[in-house]
Design brief:
The complex is a heterotrimer of chains A (185), B (653) and C (139). With 185 residues, chain A is an alpha/beta fold. Chain A has six helices and seven strands; from the N terminus they run αβββαβαβαββαα. In chain A, the strands form two sheets. A five-stranded mixed β-sheet of chain A has the order 5-4-3-6-7. Chain A has a two-stranded antiparallel sheet with strand order 1-2. The mean pLDDT of chain A is 90. Chain B has four domains: 165 residues, no CATH class; 232 residues, no CATH class; 112 residues, no CATH class; 102 residues. The C terminus of chain B is likely disordered. Chain B is built from 21 helices and ten strands. In chain B, the strands form two sheets. In chain B, strands 2, 3, 4, 5, 6 and 7 form a six-stranded antiparallel β-sheet that branches. Chain B has a four-stranded antiparallel β-sheet with strand order 1-10-9-8, with helices on one face. Chain C is mostly helical and 139 residues long. Chain C has a domain of 92 residues: Orthogonal Bundle (Helicase, Ruva Protein, domain 3). Chain C is built from five helices and no strands. The longest helix of chain C has 29 residues. The chains are: A alpha/beta (185), B alpha+beta (653), C mainly alpha (139). At the B-C interface, helix 14, helix 15, strand 1, strand 2 and strand 9 of B face helix 1, helix 2 and helix 5 of C.
C-alpha cells in the first residue's frame, strides 16, 4: 500500500511548494550586493562637470543612492517624495544613467534637486557595478559603506516606513542618523 | 446584452456539467440505469451552451464591442478581421473559454463514440469528464470571466499584442489545446476503470485511439508553436525550455509513454499500473501547465496575467483531479496486478524501458523547471535554470531512449532470440555510426563527441524505421503492413529526422550581428548579403521600415529578402519581422535590429543547416499518428475474437 | 567592406552620443566571437521575461552585452565573465546554474534517476521473466 501512495506523496510535496510559491512575486530579484561594500566609482557630477562624485563622498554616514533618468516615467512619480526626504535631512546621492546632461539639468532645475550631488553615467557603466537593471532604484547605504537594502520601483512614504525605517533604526548609532530624530516620515 | 447572454450560457453550462459529473457516477455506483442515461444528454446540453458562450465572445470581438473589458484589452477597430477572431484566445480569460470549448468538443466526441461500450463504463467516463468540465467552468466563471463589462466604454481598444498578429495565432493555440485538453480523455478512462475495479484489454483498446488523437494534436500544436516563435521572434531560436514551453512538453512525453504502454496492456493485459499512472500523469501535467502559465509563480514571456487567487483555484483543481486520481489509484492498485511473462529480448521489455526512460525525461524537465521555485521557497537563494542545463541533461535519458527505439521496433512479443535481432540490425547500426561520425565532419569541417553520437543515433533510428517497410513494400516479402505498423514506422522515422535537424541546426548554426547601411555587402556564413536599400511601407495597422537585401552565393542571386521593423499604431514598441529563405538543406535568416544612426542598421544574420528537418520530422510524427488510427481495427464496430494464430516475428504495432 | 564597417562603427560610437546604442562590432578572431555568442546566450537578462541578453531588446541587456564584449576583449575567461556578472546581479543571471551544494542535486538528478530507473527496470524484468509466458487464449 505504501508503494502505491508514492505518486500521491510526490504530488503533495510539489503542491506545498506551489502554495508557498504563490505568495511570492517571481519578479523580485534580490540584490546580490546586500551586505557588501559599495562599488568604487568616480563620475562627473551632472550639474558641474568639473566636480567629481565618488564613493568616498558616501563614507562615514548613512545615505541613499537613487538611480534616475529623465526618460524614466516612474522617476517623476517618486521625485516629490525624494524632495521631502531631502528636506528632512536624508542625504541622497543620484546616479543619472543613460541620459542627456542638458535634459537632466533642466529636470533638476524645473522639478527641484533632492540630491547632494548626482553622478553622470551616460553609458550605464557605473550602474552595472551597482547591479542596476533600470530606474527608479534606490539603495540604502550604511555608515560603514555597506549596502543595507535595494528598492526597485518608486520610493514612497509607505515603502520608506515599511522597508527603510526598520533597517535604519537597527543600524543607526546615536549620531548617525539625525534625520530620524527629526521624524523622517 | 449579448455578452450577458454569454455569461448566462456559461452558468447554464456549469449546471449541466455538474449534473453530468455527479448523477451518472452515482448511477453507475448503485446500478440505476436512468441516472446513468443522463450522461449523454447532459454532455450534449453542456456542449450547446459552451459553444454559445464562446460564440458570444467571438461576436463581441468581431463587432468591436469595447464595452467588454476583455475585448477592450485585446482588440482594436483597425485589427484585421482574422485577428479579431483569434484575439478571443489572446489573453487569459478568453483562452480559458477556449479550454472549456475544446473540452466540450472532446466530451461530445467521447459521448458519441462510447455507444459500443457498456453503459456503466461509458457513464463513468462521461461523469469524470463532467467533473473536470465543472471545475474548469467554475474557475472561468468565478475568477476569469471574459464577459465583464468596462464602464465607461473606451472609444477603441488596446490592440492585440503585435507578436500575436500572425497566422500562427490562428493555428497554434487551438491545435495545442486539442492535444492538451484531450489528455483529460485517457484520464477519464483511467479513473472510470479504477472506479469500476476492472481494467482489461478491452479497456486498453477503447482508450488507445483517443490517446493517439490527443497525442498527435499535441505534437502538431507544439511544433507549430516552435516554428512560429522561430520566424516571429526574430532571433532564430526554436526552443527555449521556457516554463510554459515545458508545460506543454511534459504532457507530450507522458502521452507518448501512455500510447506505448497501452499497446502492451491491449496486447498482453499487463502494465496496467503503468498505463493508469501515465494517464493520470499526462493530465496532471496538463493541469500543472495551466497552473504555471496562469498563477504567476514563474517568469515567462508566455505567461498570462497572474493572480494568486486564480493560482489557488487551479491548485485546488490539481488537488481534486490529480490528487483524487492518485488516491483512487493507491486504493485500487492491488487489483491491477496481472501475470504475464516476458524475457529480456522482447517487445514488452523494450516498452518497459521506454516507459522508464520517458518518465525520467519528464522528471528531468520537471525538476529543471521547478528547481528555481523550490530553491527560492526553501530560502536558499534565487537561481535560474535555462537552456544550458536542459540541452545537456535532457539528453541523459533521451540518447538511450532514441537508440533503443531502433531496436525495440523489431523485437517480437514475449521473447525473441537475441542473435536473430542482432543479425538484422548490425549492418544498419554500423552504417549509421560510421556516417554519423564522418559525414558532419566532411560537410562542416568539424564535429564533436556529442554531435557524432546524436547524428549516429538519429540516422540509426531512420534506418531502422525503414527496414521493415522497405522489405515488405519493395521486396514484397512477409505479410502486408497494417496501417498501425505503417504509422509506427512513419512516426519513428520522424523522430530520427527531427533529431537530425535539431542536432545539426544547433551544432552548426551560424549567427552574428553586423552593422550595415545601404550599399554595403556583408559576407557571412558562406553567403553574400547585399544591402540595397531601406524603404517605408504601410501595413493594415502598422508602418514599417523594410530593407531590401539581396542574398547571393558566389555572386549568383538566390532571393531578395525583406526584413522589416514594424511599429504598430497602438502598441508602439518596434517589432522585428525576420526574412527567411528556406530550402531543404538550410534556412538563411535575416532580421533588422536597431537603426544605428547615419543610415546604418544592425543586421542579424543566421544560417541554420537542416532546420527544416526539425519541423518536417515532427510533422511526420503527427502523420504517423493519423495513419495509425486509420487502421481497420478501429473502424470495425464489433470486437472480433483475438485470432490464436502466431503473429509474425516483428509483431503488430 | 569590413574596414569600412569598422570605420563606420567607430565614427558612430563617437557621434551617436549618449542615447543611441553603439554599433556592435564583432571580434576579428572567430574563436572570441564564438565565445561571445555562446556566453551571451547563457546570461539571463535581469529585467526581462525570461530572455538571454543575446535576444533581449532591453537597454540593460545591451549594456551587459557590451560588458561581456569588453571583458572577453580584455582576455577574461568565460568563468571570470560569469563571475563578474553574478557578483553584481546574483546567480539569477546564470542560465547554467553554478555547481553549489544546493544545485548539486539539480545537476546530479538526471544520473541518479537513470540509475534508479535501471534498478526499477531490472527488478520488474526479473519478476516478469519468472512468470508464465503463454497465457490463456480466449475461447
Amino acid at each position: 500500500m505504501v508503494r502505491y501512495l508514492a505518486p500521491l506523496a510526490i504530488l503533495l510535496v510539489i503542491g506545498v511548494f506551489f502554495y508557498f510559491g504563490l505568495q511570492r512575486n517571481p519578479n523580485d530579484v534580490p540584490s546580490a550586493l546586500i551586505g557588501k561594500q559599495i562599488p568604487t566609482f568616480s563620475l562627473p557630477s551632472v550639474t558641474d562637470p568639473q566636480d567629481l562624485v565618488t564613493n568616498e563622498a558616501l563614507a562615514g554616514h548613512v545615505s541613499l543612492v537613487n538611480v534616475w533618468g529623465t526618460w524614466c516615467v516612474e522617476c517623476r512619480h517618486e521625485h516629490g517624495y525624494l524632495l521631502e526626504l531631502a528636506r528632512t535631512g536624508v542625504p541622497i546621492y543620484g546616479l543619472n544613467v543613460r541620459d542627456d546632461r542638458a535634459a537632466a539639468n533642466d529636470w533638476l532645475a524645473r522639478l527641484g534637486n533632492p540630491y547632494v550631488s548626482s553622478g553622470f553615467d551616460p553609458e550605464g557603466k557605473a550602474a552595472i557595478d551597482w547591479g542596476v537593471t533600470g530606474a527608479p532604484e534606490t539603495f540604502l547605504i550604511g555608515s560603514d559603506g555597506k549596502i543595507l537594502h535595494k528598492h526597485i520601483s518608486p520610493l514612497t512614504a509607505q515603502v520608506w516606513q515599511n522597508d527603510f525605517l526598520p533597517l535604519l533604526r537597527e543600524h543607526c548609532g546615536p549620531t548617525d542618523c539625525p534625520f530620524l530624530a527629526a521624524g523622517g516620515r | 446584452m449579448i455578452p450577458e447572454l454569454g455569461q448566462l450560457a456559461l452558468a447554464l453550462a456549469l449546471c449541466l456539467a455538474l449534473v453530468q459529473g455527479t448523477l451518472p457516477l452515482v448511477g453507475a455506483g448503485i446500478g440505476r440505469a436512468d441516472l446513468m442515461a443522463l450522461a449523454r444528454p447532459a454532455a450534449a446540453g453542456q456542449f450547446v451552451f459552451v459553444l454559445l458562450a464562446f460564440g458570444t465572445l467571438v461576436y463581441a470581438f468581431l463587432s468591436d464591442d469595447f464595452s467588454v473589458l476583455f475585448v477592450a484589452e485585446h482588440s482594436n477597430s483597425a485589427l484585421p478581421v482574422f485577428y479579431k477572431a483569434t484575439a478571443a484566445w489572446g489573453g487569459h480569460e478568453g483562452s480559458m473559454l477556449l479550454w472549456i470549448t475544446v473540452l466540450a468538443i472532446w466530451t461530445m466526441a467521447v459521448a458519441a463514440g462510447s455507444r459500443s461500450q457498456p453503459q456503466e463504463f461509458a457513464s463513468r467516463v462521461l461523469g469524470v469528464l463532467g467533473i473536470v468540465s465543472a471545475g474548469v467552468i467554475a474557475f472561468a466563471f468565478f475568477t476569469s470571466n471574459p464577459f465583464l463589462r468596462l464602464i465607461p466604454t473606451p472609444a477603441d481598444g488596446n490592440d492585440l499584442n503585435p507578436l500575436l498578429q500572425d497566422p500562427g495565432m490562428i493555428f497554434h493555440p487551438p491545435t495545442l489545446y486539442v492535444g492538451y485538453v484531450g489528455a483529460s480523455v485517457p484520464f477519464a478512462f483511467a479513473v472510470a476503470a479504477l472506479l469500476s475495479g476492472r481494467l482489461d484489454k478491452d479497456w486498453a483498446k477503447w482508450t488507445r485511439p483517443w490517446t493517439v488523437v490527443a497525442w498527435l494534436f499535441l505534437t502538431a500544436g507544439i511544433t507549430l508553436g516552435s516554428w512560429w516563435s522561430y520566424y516571429e521572434l526574430g532571433w532564430g531560436g526554436w526552443w527555449f525550455w521556457d516554463p510554459v514551453e515545458n508545460s506543454s512538453f511534459m504532457p507530450w512525453l507522458m502521452a507518448t509513454a501512455l500510447l506505448h504502454s497501452l499497446a502492451v496492456t491491449e496486447r498482453r493485459g499487463i502494465f496496467k499500473s503503468w498505463t493508469v499512472l501515465l494517464a493520470i500523469a499526462a493530465f496532471s501535467l496538463s493541469l500543472l501547465g495551466t497552473f504555471l502559465t496562469r498563477a504567476g509563480v514563474l517568469i515567462s514571456v508566455h505567461a498570462f496575467a497572474s493572480d494568486p487567487t486564480r493560482g489557488l483555484f487551479i491548485l485546488g483543481l490539481l488537488a481534486l483531479f490529480s490528487g483524487g486520481g492518485l488516491l483512487l489509484y493507491a486504493i485500487r492498485a492491488k487489483n491491477l496486478e496481472a501475470e504475464g511473462g516476458f524475457k529480456l529480448v522482447s517487445r514488452e521489455a523494450f516498452l518497459l524501458a521506454n516507459n522508464v526512460l520517458l518518465v525520467i525525461a519528464t522528471a528531468v524537465v520537471l525538476l529543471g523547471t521547478l528547481a528555481p521555485l523550490i530553491i527560492e521557497v526553501a530560502g536558499l537563494g534565487k537561481i535560474s535554470v535555462g537552456p544550458p542545463y536542459f540541452n545537456l541533461m535532457f539528453l541523459v535519458p533521451v540518447f538511450p531512449l532514441v537508440a533503443l527505439i531502433g531496436v525495440g521496433m523489431h523485437a517480437g512479443w514475449r521473447m525473441m532470440p537475441g542473435d536473430a535481432l542482432m543479425r538484422r540490425l548490425r549492418v544498419p547500426a554500423l552504417a549509421a555510426v560510421i556516417v554519423g561520425v564522418v559525414a558532419p565532419f566532411i560537410v562542416f569541417d568539424t564535429t564533436s563527441v556529442l554531435t557524432a553520437i546524436a547524428v549516429s543515433i538519429a540516422l540509426w533510428v531512420c534506418a531502422s524505421s525503414l527496414l521493415d517497410p522497405v522489405r515488405r513494400l519493395v521486396y514484397r516479402t512477409g505479410a502486408p503492413l497494417t496501417r498501425g505498423q505503417m504509422g509506427m514506422y512513419l512516426a519513428h522515422f520522424g523522430v530520427g529526422i527531427f533529431m537530425l535537424g535539431a542536432t545539426v541546426a544547433s551544432a552548426y548554426n551560424f549567427e552574428r550581428d553586423y552593422s550595415a547601411k545601404p550599399g554595403d555587402t556583408i559576407q557571412a556564413g558562406g553567403y553574400e548579403f547585399a544591402f540595397q536599400s531601406i524603404t517605408e511601407t504601410q501595413g493594415p495597422n502598422f508602418v514599417a521600415d523594410e530593407a531590401q537585401i539581396e542574398l547571393r552565393k558566389n555572386g549568383a542571386l538566390i532571393a531578395v529578402l525583406n526584413p522589416q521593423i514594424r511599429t504598430y499604431q497602438v502598441q508602439t514598441s518596434p517589432m522585428t519581422e525576420a526574412a527567411i529563405e528556406s530550402n531543404v538543406l538550410r534556412d538563411v535568416f535575416v532580421a533588422l535590429g536597431e537603426p544605428l544612426g547615419a543610415g546604418a542598421w544592425s543586421v542579424r544574420i543566421r544560417v541554420k543547416p537542416l532546420i527544416g528537418f526539425l519541423w518536417f520530422g515532427a510533422g511526420l510524427m503527427a502523420l504517423g499518428g493519423i495513419v495509425a488510427i486509420s487502421d481497420r481495427r478501429y473502424r470495425l464496430a464489433a470486437r472480433q475474437t483475438q485470432p490464436a494464430a502466431a503473429q509474425p516475428a516483428t509483431g503488430a504495432a | 567592406m569590413k574596414t569600412l564597417s569598422s570605420l563606420v562603427a567607430i565614427w558612430l560610437a563617437f557621434a551617436a552620443g549618449t542615447v543611441a546604442a553603439a554599433a556592435e562590432e564583432g571580434f576579428d578572431d572567430p574563436v572570441l566571437e564564438a565565445r561571445y555568442q555562446a556566453l551571451t546566450h547563457e546570461i539571463r537578462c535581469p529585467k526581462c521575461l525570461n530572455e538571454s541578453i543575446a535576444e533581449s531588446k532591453a537597454p540593460v541587456a545591451a549594456d551587459l552585452r557590451r560588458e561581456v564584449r569588453r571583458l572577453i576583449g580584455e582576455g577574461k575567461s568565460d568563468d571570470e565573465v560569469k563571475t563578474f556578472l553574478s557578483d553584481r546581479y546574483g546567480d539569477f543571471v546564470l542560465y547554467r546554474p553554478r555547481m553549489t551544494a544546493t544545485t548539486f542535486a539539480v545537476w546530479a538528478a538526471p544520473f541518479v534517476l537513470l540509475a534508479f530507473g535501471g534498478l526499477v527496470f531490472w527488478r520488474i524484468l526479473a519478476a516478469r521473466t519468472n512468470q508464465p509466458i503463454d497465457e490463456e487464449l480466449p475461447p
